[in-house]
Input
Amino acid sequence: MKLYLGIDLGSTTTKAVVMDANQVILGKGITNSRSNYDTACAIAQNEAFIDTRFSLFRRQMSTGAVELGTGAVELGNLEAFLTGLEANFRLEQFLRQLRHLTEISMAEISKGRVDQALRTPLRDKLEQLFEEIAVEALEWFRPGAAKRSDFFRDLAGNAYMRGAEALAEPDGVTYDMLVNVYDKCIIRVENTLLDLSLEGNMGKALDRSFGDGGRDGLSEEAEAEIRSAADQVLDISLEVLNAVGTGYGRARLPFPKERIRSEILCHGLGAHTMFPGTATVLDIGGQDTKAIQVDPEGIVTSFQMNDRCAAGCGRYLGYIADELNMGVQELGPLAMQANKSVRINSTCTVFAGAELRERLNNGERREDILQGLHRAIILRAMSLLARSGGIEDEFTFTGGVANNEAAVHALSTLVEENYGKRKLNISANSIYTGAVGAALFALRNVAG
Amino acid sequence: MKKNKALEKIQQRCQALYEDLNLATVRAWKAEAPGRKAIGFMPVYIPREILHAAGILPVGLMGADIEIIRGDAYFQSYICHIPRSTIEMAVNGSLDALDGVIFPSICDVIRNLSGMWKMMFPDKYSKYLDLPQNFTPGLAGEYYIAELRTLAADMERLSGHRITDDALRESIRLYNRNRELVLELYDLRAEKPWQVRTVELYLLLRAGNLLPVEEHNAMLEAYREAIEGEERQALDNSRIVLTGAFCEQPPLGLIHTIERSGCYIVDDDFVLGSRFLTAPIPEEGDPVANIAQTFLDHAMETPFVYIAEKEKGEALVRQCRRRRGEGVIFSAASFCDPALLDQPMVSAAVEREGIPYTEFKYAENTGQFQVIKEQTGTFSDSIKLWGNE
Amino acid sequence: MSAQVTRIKPEADQPLPGNEVQKERSMVLQKEMIASHYKALAASAETGCKVVYTFVPGNLNELIGSFDNLLPVHPEINALQNAMRKRTGKMVLEAEKLGHSEDVCAYVKADIGMARSGNIGPSGTRIPDPHLLLLSYTGCFTFLKWFELLREEYNAPVAMLHTPYQGDGIVTDSMRAYMVRQIKEEVIPKLEKVSGRKFDIDKLREMLARSRQAEDDLVAVLESAKNVPSPIDAYFGAVYYIGPIFSAFRGTEAAVEYYRELRKEVEARLAAGQGPVTPEGEMGPERYRLVVEGPPNWTSFRDFWKMFYDEGAVVVASSYAKVGGLYDQGFRHDPEHPLESLADYCFGCYTNLNLPSRVALLSKYVREYQADGFLINSIKSCNSFSAGQLLILREVEQRTGIAGGFVESDLVDPRYFSGANIKTRMESYFQMIEQKRKGAA
Ligand code: SF4
Ligand code: SF4
Output
């Protein structure tokens, strides 16, 4: 099967998107960028290909290309089964990484720097800790369960710290010792290319799904059919005809120059792919803000970016969240409870804390200040938009801040006041916008 | 204590005028008679007499502490704030009452703003008034007189009124009186800073941006009278001279903050156009030539005026002595080239004289006063300690 | 003939260096001119020459040169040359330590920083203190403050020349008369005083005649960029081409020779269908033709140029190449009207034009040079250039129908050159032009 690959090597996350010749997005993969770009890239790609095979699997089964025999299932049931299967597959991947973490942690303990007397108790504690995580993981990967993150580092790390706190003893194996082992090993796990492929883990995932009566009303014949369908999908050869890279780390990709496109162009084209009516794009990411105008083909006709000062970008909200001792994702909902908007004049990251404290001291409510802050960020974006040529219909908003309801609220209000009614598009998958654009560039460059 | 009704009325009027960003006052003035025109001007100084003599209302524009929605789209982050709010107000219609704007030559930002105006509002009058910078006697007079005559001709065309010499002399008389009244209040404040509060004085000057000079003169006189009847308590504050704020103005809250932190401001360069000429313009003789010559001989020494062959900072030191200032606060707008380039020279002069100083930057929309309060408070304390030793 | 010229002559006749490093003869000439000027400055105490500091825009080089014993120093040029040698970071910090604000023009701070650390110029020799500060206040307010600062620094007299701004886009008779009067009654007497010699108007005329000759050749060089492909780069490359005529050499024999030579070389390149020479080597095929507004960044001059080179982008016209005079718009120094023409020269420097005139000129360049891009390099230091540039961008886009690009940097303060940010913008900009072309085709 002929495919096109787009990779967006961002400063915090790396995304990969796989597209077929009909511009249908088959697979998406994401991982944190870490220090090693090559690994990040490989993992994101790998994930995108796994996702692609799941799509193909779905496609093949739901189009009836595979006969399900006598016990053929309802399509709805099949969907539930597939969701469950994917969850099990993710669980297998997680466990694979956890095993690796266990191995190198044990090896680390033997490495001499740990007090001889404490080695055995430390090993015991770790074993217990990892076992507990493995059990807990079964919960996280149940279909529909809410996870804090998709990244191994976050999931494992969080559970590990909690476990370490519970198991630590003041005069034996201390919390610090446990954390120390983790810190040393996690980076190595992240930078090792483990076999997390579909091929290597699907069998186990299927076993898990079909075991323990998890068959969900599927007959044995159906199981056989599904297993053979899985084999067939695994057998399809996936051939990447062209790949295009973009993003902050694009220069690090082992691609020739023609296969590297700027973030801005990819972003414009990606937004166009996701919402074909797009004329104006606003992207507010962690480090920068971009205002982009595109033509009906998704080609960028004009753009503006923030200057070297990161005022008003996502990072600013991060500082504010730290200052308030809250999670970034909690800011928006709180701001939505405001009665009024306190005017905030500076979205300078350096003064963020001071300004906030002063407002609080003056007796302003947190909610109202936060609403003002969101408005201030959007005002900065509005001036970039104005510089780039205004806001045309339709208007697509992407980047991390697009998930923040207070920011969206401020934006739609200001857009309407200043430009009139505009259709505002926000995609749940907006983080993939750049990679989608890159994939479409890959396709167009081959086609054209 | 009985309420000082007269004072209260003036205060309220001033506050209302300060908040009149949409220039309702100007609109009302224009509506009083058909064909009236009003022309705005940016800081610091223009010869308002010429506008007045043509029956035109000069309106002082000094930016504003408003939310900027469109103005930022025109200026990079490293440019001061006043052009942003000015464009904001122009674009959102707040300045519609004006028939034009004059941009005096105080810096490259205001200069370039004049060209932006020409492009953005081609139907309105806009003029860059290049005040002479060569003060060597005899060199700039003819040029400046010619500039003023061009301006006068423009004003005549705009208003449809001829500017007679007599009318211009009368305008000079009124503005001389205005400068005199302002200076009296400055003197009075230096004498009794607890009596004439800086915020009050500041708002009085700001009122002069919108009011016809006749009305403003009356207001200044009324204030003078009203304040006599006030009994206000003197505090143990230190006496400071504030400088650097001649163009973009600090928000009111900042002026309050400085006073509350224990500083009496005994001289400043707020709304400086009101007293930019340090001597009255002669009321006899060729009025245009008189306006020009008074500028050349008696322009105040400020950062945007080239000071030939004199020691930089001498004027500030003199001012400090005259007002019995015990310290200097350099408060410049962020990114204000003339103020900030001037500061190292002038602060060195102040230092040589043993006058303590402190410095900070602000913007017209500064929302944080806490840090400044601590700074000026500490400064004031140190002056008192040092002075009592 | 003026002092510095006699020194240059013999060296200029030396044979060209070997073929391995193929240097154009004009480059060699220019190097020698500059070196000999710095040498003359270093030797001024012995030769008895007096030193006049003055600014590039609106400089009265012929007038200074006509005295024979006066040597000009251009503080901006020291600053930018130091920046290209990566020395200004420290100088700027030095000035900031002395109380100069982070917010103001970095040229000034680099200059103050240099003065405070021995006044060692870019050539490594000491720059003598000024005997006179000739303050040609043309097109930039900061100049006033700069020389007030230097006056405090060196305790030197100042001759003030206030060039009125073309606020209404015109030069009136009274503006011109004011200038001539200042030159006659302020500038010349002060020059006479430091020089100890009488002003000789015939010498001035001779120099102006030579200026004119060189100016003709310079214009031919700049306008060669109207050809497709262009044999020159009119921004990065032009920095070298304008060097002599914007500074100490206008009106000298050396400059006449330099521009004659340069013009020959450019014409030869044109005939051979060659593109511009760059530090990275011969430019590849011309892929983009740009008009650029704003000065270059000096601290990363080469990196910045390389971003253009890598993409096959040639700058065909720039406003920066006009800061020292709009010769391509017809102005020439005129020996028949010496003082008036000095005045007119000052009036016409690019930053002395109002914004509507700047927009008109830039739009004209886009059309006449068949540019497919318009880029602004917005300089933090310089409000004279930068204030209003976002409106210029919009207006030029509207008038020419091409999309503009916008990057931000600084002149000599290395802290304000963010390579990654600029590269992203530049790449995106070039790719955007390319995509548009593809779309149109
Ligand atoms: S604040 Fe300073 S830099 Fe800004 S416009 Fe006023 S004088 Fe110019
Ligand atoms: S502000 Fe601009 S024109 Fe003025 S000295 Fe600095 S760089 Fe030159």
About this structure: The longest strand of chain A covers residues 2-9. The radius of gyration of chain A is 24 Å. The domain at 2-85+228-259 of chain A is CATH 3.30.420 (Nucleotidyltransferase; domain 5).
